[in-house]
Amino acid sequence: MEQIWNNVKTVLKENMPYHRYIMWIDPMEYTGHSNEDIVLSCPNSFLKKKILDSYGELIESEFFKVSGKQFNLAIKINERNETKKNQKQIKKTDDFNFKKYDKKHQLKLPEINFQPQSGRRLRKELTFDNFVVGDNNEFAYTASLSLASRQNSSQNSLFLISKTGMGKTHLSQAMGHYILSKFPSERVYYITAEDYTNEMVSSIRNNTIGKFKEKYRAQCDVLLLEDVHFLTGKVRTQSELALALDYMYELGKKIIFTSHYIPGEIPNLSDQLRSRLTCGLISNIEPPNFRTRVRILLKKSKDSGFIIPREITEYLAGELSESVRQLEGGLIGITAKSSLLGRKIDQELAESVVKNISRQKKTITIDSIKDLICGEYKISKKDLISSSRKQSLVRPRRIAIYLARQYTDQPLQAIGKSFNRIHATAIHSIRAVEKEIKTNSPIKKEIEYLCKKLDSGT
Predict the structure, then answer these.
(1) CA separation for the pair 131, 137 (Å, rounded)
(2) How large is the C-alpha radius of gyration of the chain?
(3) Which residue, 247, 268, 211, is CA-closest to 432?
(4) In a 10 Å sphere around its CB, with 0-12 CB exposed, 13-18 middle and 19+ buried, how is residue 424 labelled?
(5) Contact 33/39 with Cβ under 8 angstroms?
(6) Contact call for residues 309 and 336 (beta carbons, < 8 A)
(7) How does pLDDT run across 152-174, given as a tens digit for each residue?
(8) Which helix (H) or strand (E) holds 29?
(9) DSSP H helical segments within 16-97, as ranges?
(10) Domains of the chain, with CATH numbers?
(11) What pLDDT was estimated at residue 458?
Protein backbone atom coordinates (compact mmCIF):
# COMPACT_ATOMS: atom_id res chain seq x y z
CA MET A 1 0.00 0.00 0.00
CA GLU A 2 2.93 2.34 0.66
CA GLN A 3 3.99 1.86 -2.97
CA ILE A 4 0.48 2.84 -4.08
CA TRP A 5 0.82 6.06 -2.06
CA ASN A 6 4.16 6.74 -3.77
CA ASN A 7 2.45 6.23 -7.14
CA VAL A 8 -0.34 8.62 -6.10
CA LYS A 9 2.28 11.24 -5.13
CA THR A 10 3.92 10.87 -8.53
CA VAL A 11 0.62 11.48 -10.29
CA LEU A 12 -0.16 14.51 -8.11
CA LYS A 13 3.31 15.94 -8.68
CA GLU A 14 2.80 15.81 -12.43
CA ASN A 15 -0.68 17.34 -12.39
CA MET A 16 -0.51 20.24 -9.91
CA PRO A 17 1.69 23.34 -9.52
CA TYR A 18 5.09 22.33 -8.16
CA HIS A 19 5.07 24.79 -5.23
CA ARG A 20 1.69 23.42 -4.06
CA TYR A 21 2.94 19.84 -4.29
CA ILE A 22 6.09 20.64 -2.28
CA MET A 23 4.13 22.56 0.34
CA TRP A 24 1.14 20.28 0.90
CA ILE A 25 1.62 16.80 -0.58
CA ASP A 26 5.32 15.99 -0.27
CA PRO A 27 5.51 16.26 3.56
CA MET A 28 2.86 13.54 4.02
CA GLU A 29 3.92 9.97 4.80
CA TYR A 30 2.07 6.65 4.58
CA THR A 31 1.17 5.35 8.05
CA GLY A 32 -1.29 2.50 7.55
CA HIS A 33 -4.64 1.42 6.15
CA SER A 34 -7.76 -0.60 6.83
CA ASN A 35 -10.51 -1.92 4.58
CA GLU A 36 -12.05 1.54 4.36
CA ASP A 37 -9.40 4.08 5.40
CA ILE A 38 -5.98 5.11 4.18
CA VAL A 39 -3.99 6.81 6.95
CA LEU A 40 -1.34 9.41 6.17
CA SER A 41 0.66 11.63 8.52
CA CYS A 42 1.75 15.25 8.24
CA PRO A 43 3.97 17.49 10.41
CA ASN A 44 1.38 19.82 11.95
CA SER A 45 -2.28 20.79 12.30
CA PHE A 46 -2.01 23.65 9.80
CA LEU A 47 -1.10 21.26 7.00
CA LYS A 48 -3.72 18.74 8.10
CA LYS A 49 -6.55 21.28 7.87
CA LYS A 50 -5.39 22.66 4.51
CA ILE A 51 -4.91 19.20 2.97
CA LEU A 52 -8.31 17.89 4.09
CA ASP A 53 -10.10 21.06 2.96
CA SER A 54 -8.37 21.55 -0.38
CA TYR A 55 -6.92 18.23 -1.49
CA GLY A 56 -8.82 15.50 0.39
CA GLU A 57 -11.20 14.58 -2.44
CA LEU A 58 -8.39 14.74 -5.00
CA ILE A 59 -6.20 12.34 -3.00
CA GLU A 60 -9.10 9.91 -2.46
CA SER A 61 -9.87 10.03 -6.19
CA GLU A 62 -6.27 9.29 -7.16
CA PHE A 63 -6.12 6.37 -4.69
CA PHE A 64 -9.20 4.93 -6.38
CA LYS A 65 -7.66 5.34 -9.84
CA VAL A 66 -4.35 3.74 -8.83
CA SER A 67 -5.63 0.96 -6.55
CA GLY A 68 -9.10 0.35 -7.99
CA LYS A 69 -10.57 0.54 -4.49
CA GLN A 70 -12.33 3.41 -2.69
CA PHE A 71 -10.61 4.62 0.49
CA ASN A 72 -11.49 7.38 2.93
CA LEU A 73 -8.58 9.69 3.71
CA ALA A 74 -7.51 10.03 7.35
CA ILE A 75 -4.63 12.28 8.40
CA LYS A 76 -2.88 12.32 11.75
CA ILE A 77 -0.17 14.58 13.15
CA ASN A 78 3.29 13.03 13.19
CA GLU A 79 3.89 13.27 16.94
CA ARG A 80 7.39 11.84 16.62
CA ASN A 81 8.51 14.77 14.48
CA GLU A 82 6.84 17.27 16.80
CA THR A 83 8.59 15.69 19.80
CA LYS A 84 11.97 15.90 18.10
CA LYS A 85 11.41 19.55 17.23
CA ASN A 86 10.41 20.35 20.79
CA GLN A 87 13.47 18.54 22.12
CA LYS A 88 15.70 20.57 19.82
CA GLN A 89 14.12 23.77 21.07
CA ILE A 90 14.70 22.74 24.67
CA LYS A 91 18.37 22.02 23.98
CA LYS A 92 18.76 25.44 22.38
CA THR A 93 17.54 27.17 25.57
CA ASP A 94 20.61 27.55 27.79
CA ASP A 95 20.33 26.97 31.55
CA PHE A 96 16.60 26.26 31.40
CA ASN A 97 15.27 23.24 33.24
CA PHE A 98 11.65 22.54 32.37
CA LYS A 99 11.30 19.95 35.15
CA LYS A 100 12.51 22.46 37.72
CA TYR A 101 9.90 25.02 36.72
CA ASP A 102 7.09 22.63 35.80
CA LYS A 103 4.96 23.22 38.91
CA LYS A 104 5.47 26.96 38.88
CA HIS A 105 5.08 27.40 35.15
CA GLN A 106 2.24 29.81 34.41
CA LEU A 107 0.08 29.16 31.39
CA LYS A 108 -0.30 31.92 28.82
CA LEU A 109 -3.44 33.96 29.43
CA PRO A 110 -5.98 33.80 26.60
CA GLU A 111 -6.73 36.77 24.31
CA ILE A 112 -3.34 38.40 24.95
CA ASN A 113 -1.26 39.35 21.94
CA PHE A 114 2.05 37.60 21.41
CA GLN A 115 4.88 39.92 22.39
CA PRO A 116 8.12 39.53 20.43
CA GLN A 117 11.30 40.08 22.40
CA SER A 118 11.89 43.33 20.54
CA GLY A 119 9.80 45.84 18.65
CA ARG A 120 6.09 46.13 18.16
CA ARG A 121 3.37 43.85 19.52
CA LEU A 122 1.78 41.35 17.15
CA ARG A 123 -1.94 41.85 16.61
CA LYS A 124 -3.76 38.74 17.82
CA GLU A 125 -6.09 38.55 14.78
CA LEU A 126 -3.30 38.50 12.18
CA THR A 127 -2.75 34.75 11.98
CA PHE A 128 -2.62 32.19 9.18
CA ASP A 129 -6.07 30.91 10.16
CA ASN A 130 -7.56 34.37 9.59
CA PHE A 131 -5.86 34.95 6.25
CA VAL A 132 -8.10 34.46 3.20
CA VAL A 133 -6.14 32.74 0.44
CA GLY A 134 -6.91 33.49 -3.20
CA ASP A 135 -5.19 33.36 -6.57
CA ASN A 136 -3.67 36.77 -5.85
CA ASN A 137 -1.77 35.70 -2.73
CA GLU A 138 -1.57 31.90 -2.72
CA PHE A 139 2.15 31.71 -3.43
CA ALA A 140 2.95 34.37 -0.81
CA TYR A 141 0.82 32.47 1.74
CA THR A 142 2.46 29.14 0.89
CA ALA A 143 5.96 30.60 1.07
CA SER A 144 5.19 32.28 4.41
CA LEU A 145 3.75 29.14 5.99
CA SER A 146 6.64 27.08 4.63
CA LEU A 147 9.22 29.38 6.20
CA ALA A 148 7.39 29.64 9.53
CA SER A 149 6.80 25.89 9.85
CA ARG A 150 10.34 25.02 8.65
CA GLN A 151 9.02 22.86 5.82
CA ASN A 152 11.96 23.84 3.63
CA SER A 153 15.20 23.91 5.61
CA SER A 154 16.99 25.82 2.85
CA GLN A 155 14.51 28.74 2.94
CA ASN A 156 15.84 31.34 5.36
CA SER A 157 14.42 34.59 4.00
CA LEU A 158 11.31 35.91 2.31
CA PHE A 159 10.64 39.30 0.69
CA LEU A 160 6.92 40.19 0.44
CA ILE A 161 5.88 42.97 -1.96
CA SER A 162 2.54 44.71 -2.33
CA LYS A 163 0.83 48.04 -2.25
CA THR A 164 -0.66 49.25 1.02
CA GLY A 165 -3.54 47.18 2.38
CA MET A 166 -2.96 43.94 0.44
CA GLY A 167 -1.98 41.65 3.33
CA LYS A 168 1.81 41.66 3.56
CA THR A 169 1.73 42.86 7.17
CA HIS A 170 -0.86 40.17 7.96
CA LEU A 171 1.43 37.44 6.59
CA SER A 172 4.48 38.89 8.33
CA GLN A 173 2.74 38.92 11.71
CA ALA A 174 1.18 35.51 11.04
CA MET A 175 4.70 34.10 10.69
CA GLY A 176 5.62 35.72 14.00
CA HIS A 177 2.58 34.21 15.73
CA TYR A 178 3.26 30.77 14.31
CA ILE A 179 6.96 30.74 15.22
CA LEU A 180 6.29 31.98 18.75
CA SER A 181 3.65 29.29 19.28
CA LYS A 182 5.62 26.39 17.81
CA PHE A 183 9.15 27.44 18.78
CA PRO A 184 8.69 29.46 22.01
CA SER A 185 12.40 29.69 22.81
CA GLU A 186 13.15 31.60 19.59
CA ARG A 187 13.86 35.31 19.86
CA VAL A 188 11.52 37.05 17.42
CA TYR A 189 11.97 40.75 16.60
CA TYR A 190 9.12 42.52 14.79
CA ILE A 191 9.97 46.09 13.79
CA THR A 192 9.64 48.57 10.96
CA ALA A 193 12.59 49.94 9.01
CA GLU A 194 11.83 53.33 10.57
CA ASP A 195 12.01 51.77 14.06
CA TYR A 196 15.35 50.19 13.18
CA THR A 197 16.74 53.51 11.92
CA ASN A 198 15.55 55.46 14.96
CA GLU A 199 16.93 52.83 17.31
CA MET A 200 20.33 52.97 15.63
CA VAL A 201 20.43 56.78 15.70
CA SER A 202 19.51 56.71 19.40
CA SER A 203 22.24 54.18 20.16
CA ILE A 204 24.82 56.39 18.44
CA ARG A 205 23.73 59.44 20.44
CA ASN A 206 23.78 57.47 23.72
CA ASN A 207 27.08 55.73 22.92
CA THR A 208 25.44 52.28 23.00
CA ILE A 209 26.04 51.27 19.37
CA GLY A 210 27.87 48.14 20.54
CA LYS A 211 24.74 46.85 22.30
CA PHE A 212 22.65 47.71 19.25
CA LYS A 213 24.93 45.68 16.96
CA GLU A 214 25.02 42.75 19.35
CA LYS A 215 21.23 42.75 19.62
CA TYR A 216 20.58 42.23 15.92
CA ARG A 217 23.70 40.27 15.02
CA ALA A 218 23.69 37.70 17.81
CA GLN A 219 20.53 37.93 19.90
CA CYS A 220 17.87 37.66 17.19
CA ASP A 221 16.62 34.34 15.76
CA VAL A 222 13.80 35.69 13.58
CA LEU A 223 13.69 39.23 12.16
CA LEU A 224 10.42 40.58 10.79
CA LEU A 225 11.39 43.87 9.13
CA GLU A 226 8.53 45.92 7.67
CA ASP A 227 8.66 48.65 5.00
CA VAL A 228 12.30 48.33 3.97
CA HIS A 229 11.73 50.95 1.25
CA PHE A 230 11.89 53.48 4.11
CA LEU A 231 15.67 52.91 4.13
CA THR A 232 16.13 54.76 0.84
CA GLY A 233 18.99 57.24 1.13
CA LYS A 234 19.90 56.24 4.72
CA VAL A 235 23.50 55.24 4.03
CA ARG A 236 24.74 54.38 7.51
CA THR A 237 21.59 52.46 8.43
CA GLN A 238 21.84 50.44 5.22
CA SER A 239 25.49 49.60 5.93
CA GLU A 240 24.79 48.40 9.48
CA LEU A 241 21.71 46.40 8.42
CA ALA A 242 23.67 44.69 5.64
CA LEU A 243 26.32 43.57 8.15
CA ALA A 244 23.65 42.37 10.59
CA LEU A 245 21.99 40.36 7.82
CA ASP A 246 25.35 38.76 6.97
CA TYR A 247 25.65 37.50 10.55
CA MET A 248 22.08 36.22 10.56
CA TYR A 249 22.38 34.44 7.21
CA GLU A 250 25.58 32.70 8.30
CA LEU A 251 23.84 31.41 11.43
CA GLY A 252 20.77 30.20 9.50
CA LYS A 253 18.40 32.71 11.10
CA LYS A 254 15.01 33.50 9.55
CA ILE A 255 14.43 36.94 8.00
CA ILE A 256 11.19 38.32 6.55
CA PHE A 257 11.04 41.65 4.72
CA THR A 258 8.05 43.62 3.45
CA SER A 259 8.06 46.52 1.03
CA HIS A 260 5.99 48.45 -1.50
CA TYR A 261 8.70 47.84 -4.13
CA ILE A 262 11.03 45.07 -5.23
CA PRO A 263 14.63 45.64 -4.07
CA GLY A 264 15.71 46.66 -7.57
CA GLU A 265 13.20 49.52 -7.61
CA ILE A 266 14.00 51.03 -4.20
CA PRO A 267 15.93 54.23 -4.99
CA ASN A 268 19.22 55.14 -3.29
CA LEU A 269 19.76 51.64 -1.92
CA SER A 270 23.34 50.41 -1.59
CA ASP A 271 24.41 47.47 -3.74
CA GLN A 272 25.55 45.73 -0.55
CA LEU A 273 22.09 45.82 1.05
CA ARG A 274 20.25 45.23 -2.21
CA SER A 275 22.14 41.95 -2.71
CA ARG A 276 21.19 40.81 0.82
CA LEU A 277 17.50 41.58 0.20
CA THR A 278 17.42 39.58 -3.04
CA CYS A 279 19.21 36.43 -1.85
CA GLY A 280 15.99 34.77 -0.67
CA LEU A 281 12.53 34.09 -2.06
CA ILE A 282 10.61 37.11 -3.39
CA SER A 283 6.82 37.06 -3.66
CA ASN A 284 4.35 39.66 -4.87
CA ILE A 285 0.79 40.04 -3.55
CA GLU A 286 -1.70 41.27 -6.14
CA PRO A 287 -5.09 42.88 -5.50
CA PRO A 288 -7.78 40.25 -4.78
CA ASN A 289 -10.24 39.33 -7.53
CA PHE A 290 -14.02 39.55 -7.08
CA ARG A 291 -14.43 36.01 -5.78
CA THR A 292 -11.67 36.47 -3.20
CA ARG A 293 -13.10 39.85 -2.14
CA VAL A 294 -16.45 38.18 -1.46
CA ARG A 295 -14.75 35.51 0.65
CA ILE A 296 -12.84 38.16 2.59
CA LEU A 297 -16.04 40.05 3.39
CA LEU A 298 -17.89 36.88 4.38
CA LYS A 299 -15.11 35.83 6.75
CA LYS A 300 -14.67 39.25 8.33
CA SER A 301 -18.41 39.75 8.82
CA LYS A 302 -18.68 36.30 10.39
CA ASP A 303 -15.69 36.92 12.69
CA SER A 304 -17.22 40.26 13.73
CA GLY A 305 -20.62 38.70 14.41
CA PHE A 306 -22.48 40.70 11.74
CA ILE A 307 -25.05 39.29 9.35
CA ILE A 308 -24.68 40.94 5.95
CA PRO A 309 -27.11 40.07 3.13
CA ARG A 310 -25.38 38.22 0.31
CA GLU A 311 -26.37 40.82 -2.28
CA ILE A 312 -24.82 43.60 -0.15
CA THR A 313 -21.64 41.59 0.26
CA GLU A 314 -21.38 41.16 -3.51
CA TYR A 315 -22.14 44.85 -4.04
CA LEU A 316 -19.27 45.86 -1.74
CA ALA A 317 -16.94 43.36 -3.41
CA GLY A 318 -17.81 44.82 -6.80
CA GLU A 319 -17.36 48.46 -5.81
CA LEU A 320 -14.38 48.29 -3.44
CA SER A 321 -11.65 46.64 -5.47
CA GLU A 322 -8.50 48.55 -4.56
CA SER A 323 -7.32 46.69 -1.45
CA VAL A 324 -8.28 44.48 1.48
CA ARG A 325 -8.09 47.53 3.72
CA GLN A 326 -10.67 49.30 1.59
CA LEU A 327 -12.97 46.28 1.89
CA GLU A 328 -12.59 46.37 5.66
CA GLY A 329 -13.43 50.07 5.63
CA GLY A 330 -16.61 49.38 3.69
CA LEU A 331 -17.69 46.60 6.03
CA ILE A 332 -17.00 48.68 9.15
CA GLY A 333 -18.78 51.65 7.57
CA ILE A 334 -22.08 49.90 6.83
CA THR A 335 -22.21 48.02 10.15
CA ALA A 336 -21.42 51.17 12.13
CA LYS A 337 -23.95 53.27 10.23
CA SER A 338 -26.60 50.57 10.59
CA SER A 339 -25.99 50.39 14.33
CA LEU A 340 -25.90 54.16 14.95
CA LEU A 341 -28.99 54.94 12.87
CA GLY A 342 -30.92 51.82 13.78
CA ARG A 343 -31.37 50.98 10.11
CA LYS A 344 -31.26 47.62 8.45
CA ILE A 345 -28.39 46.92 6.07
CA ASP A 346 -29.79 47.39 2.58
CA GLN A 347 -28.68 48.63 -0.84
CA GLU A 348 -29.38 52.28 -0.07
CA LEU A 349 -27.28 52.18 3.11
CA ALA A 350 -24.43 50.37 1.35
CA GLU A 351 -24.42 52.88 -1.52
CA SER A 352 -24.21 55.82 0.89
CA VAL A 353 -21.14 54.30 2.55
CA VAL A 354 -19.42 53.29 -0.67
CA LYS A 355 -19.92 56.77 -2.10
CA ASN A 356 -17.78 58.20 0.69
CA ILE A 357 -14.86 55.78 0.51
CA SER A 358 -14.63 54.64 -3.10
CA ARG A 359 -12.61 56.69 -5.53
CA GLN A 360 -14.98 58.04 -8.13
CA LYS A 361 -12.48 58.19 -10.95
CA LYS A 362 -11.79 57.05 -14.43
CA THR A 363 -9.16 54.42 -14.98
CA ILE A 364 -5.89 56.26 -14.53
CA THR A 365 -3.21 55.41 -17.07
CA ILE A 366 0.15 56.89 -17.96
CA ASP A 367 -1.48 58.55 -20.98
CA SER A 368 -4.20 60.17 -18.84
CA ILE A 369 -1.49 61.48 -16.50
CA LYS A 370 0.38 62.91 -19.50
CA ASP A 371 -2.82 64.61 -20.66
CA LEU A 372 -3.34 66.18 -17.25
CA ILE A 373 0.27 67.40 -16.96
CA CYS A 374 0.30 68.83 -20.46
CA GLY A 375 -2.98 70.65 -19.87
CA GLU A 376 -1.95 72.10 -16.50
CA TYR A 377 1.57 73.17 -17.53
CA LYS A 378 0.65 74.24 -21.07
CA ILE A 379 3.15 72.03 -22.84
CA SER A 380 2.84 69.47 -25.63
CA LYS A 381 3.25 65.71 -25.24
CA LYS A 382 6.16 65.91 -27.66
CA ASP A 383 7.96 68.35 -25.36
CA LEU A 384 7.07 66.29 -22.27
CA ILE A 385 8.91 63.21 -23.56
CA SER A 386 11.66 65.10 -25.40
CA SER A 387 15.33 65.15 -24.41
CA SER A 388 15.17 68.85 -23.53
CA ARG A 389 16.65 69.84 -20.15
CA LYS A 390 14.79 73.13 -19.85
CA GLN A 391 13.51 73.59 -16.30
CA SER A 392 10.05 74.40 -17.67
CA LEU A 393 9.94 70.83 -19.03
CA VAL A 394 12.04 68.92 -16.49
CA ARG A 395 9.75 69.84 -13.59
CA PRO A 396 6.43 68.68 -15.11
CA ARG A 397 8.19 65.61 -16.56
CA ARG A 398 9.39 64.56 -13.11
CA ILE A 399 5.96 65.15 -11.63
CA ALA A 400 4.36 63.07 -14.38
CA ILE A 401 6.77 60.18 -13.73
CA TYR A 402 6.11 60.44 -10.00
CA LEU A 403 2.33 60.34 -10.50
CA ALA A 404 2.66 57.41 -12.92
CA ARG A 405 4.42 55.48 -10.19
CA GLN A 406 1.80 56.40 -7.59
CA TYR A 407 -1.31 55.76 -9.68
CA THR A 408 -0.48 52.90 -12.04
CA ASP A 409 0.72 49.34 -11.66
CA GLN A 410 3.34 49.77 -14.38
CA PRO A 411 6.93 48.80 -13.46
CA LEU A 412 9.57 51.51 -13.46
CA GLN A 413 11.07 50.21 -16.69
CA ALA A 414 7.74 50.71 -18.48
CA ILE A 415 7.20 54.14 -16.91
CA GLY A 416 10.67 55.29 -17.92
CA LYS A 417 10.21 53.98 -21.45
CA SER A 418 6.92 55.84 -21.88
CA PHE A 419 8.80 59.09 -21.21
CA ASN A 420 11.81 58.08 -23.33
CA ARG A 421 13.89 57.63 -20.17
CA ILE A 422 15.87 54.72 -18.78
CA HIS A 423 15.00 52.94 -15.54
CA ALA A 424 17.61 54.83 -13.49
CA THR A 425 16.32 58.22 -14.69
CA ALA A 426 12.78 57.31 -13.67
CA ILE A 427 14.03 56.41 -10.18
CA HIS A 428 15.95 59.70 -9.98
CA SER A 429 12.85 61.68 -10.98
CA ILE A 430 10.68 59.99 -8.35
CA ARG A 431 13.33 60.49 -5.69
CA ALA A 432 13.71 64.19 -6.59
CA VAL A 433 9.97 64.81 -6.24
CA GLU A 434 9.78 62.89 -2.96
CA LYS A 435 12.65 64.97 -1.58
CA GLU A 436 10.93 68.24 -2.52
CA ILE A 437 7.65 67.08 -0.99
CA LYS A 438 9.41 66.36 2.32
CA THR A 439 10.86 69.88 2.41
CA ASN A 440 7.40 71.41 1.95
CA SER A 441 8.41 73.13 -1.26
CA PRO A 442 5.74 74.57 -3.65
CA ILE A 443 5.74 71.23 -5.49
CA LYS A 444 3.88 69.68 -2.56
CA LYS A 445 0.80 71.81 -3.19
CA GLU A 446 1.08 71.13 -6.93
CA ILE A 447 1.08 67.36 -6.28
CA GLU A 448 -1.91 67.64 -3.94
CA TYR A 449 -3.83 69.62 -6.55
CA LEU A 450 -2.98 67.14 -9.33
CA CYS A 451 -3.90 64.16 -7.13
CA LYS A 452 -7.32 65.68 -6.45
CA LYS A 453 -7.85 66.09 -10.18
CA LEU A 454 -6.90 62.45 -10.80
CA ASP A 455 -8.99 61.13 -7.89
CA SER A 456 -12.07 63.03 -9.03
CA GLY A 457 -11.66 61.86 -12.61
CA THR A 458 -11.47 65.41 -13.93
Answers:
(1) 10
(2) 26
(3) 268
(4) exposed
(5) yes
(6) no
(7) 667 789 999 988 888 999 999 99
(8) strand 29-33
(9) 18-20, 45-54, 56-67, 79-92
(10) 2-80 (3.30.300.180), 118-284 (3.40.50.300), 290-357 (1.10.8.60), 366-456 (1.10.1750.10)
(11) 61
